[in-house]
Amino acid sequence: PNDNNDESWLLRTARPVRPDFLVYDCHHHLIAVMDAKYKRYGRIGRYGTEPHSVSREDLYQMATYMSHFGPHNLPFAGIFISPFNTENEGMLELTGSPQHFMSICNLPLETLCDTPTEKDNVKESLAAIEREFATRLDDRLKQIVVLQNAKGSP
Fold first, then answer.
1. Are strands 21-24 and 97-106 parallel, antiparallel or unpaired?
2. Which pTM value belongs to this model?
3. CB of 71 within 8 A of CB of 62?
4. pLDDT tens-digit map of 18-55
């Protein structure tokens, strides 16, 4: 969406709303917005000062994306992508918006630096990291699709 997105959040402004990724299901229904961060996020957290928790500013940014792009009457997810190997909590329901959820999904690229490896092993390690990330992300997105189907998505 960053390439040619001219949607503005405020009227008469040149400041567009541009999430990193918009995710659609196989029926072309928008199910999630994703935002990549180069921060050590592992949980949403009650406060931004907690270790590995999302900052207040990033939460507000995601809430803005979700409000702008998300259907108000159907399940929808805001997912942070973080390149660090930290434990993740599951999908969290937003207060006051029971159809909207936030989550973090890690793509732990830092694990490539944990041990010295040969070039071929780096490729194999990266492929394994990508597969694990894709599985975790797929699980989160499937949760939203199941919820939308249960709700009767158009």
1. unpaired
2. 0.79
3. no
4. 899 999 988 888 999 999 998 888 878 777 788 888 89
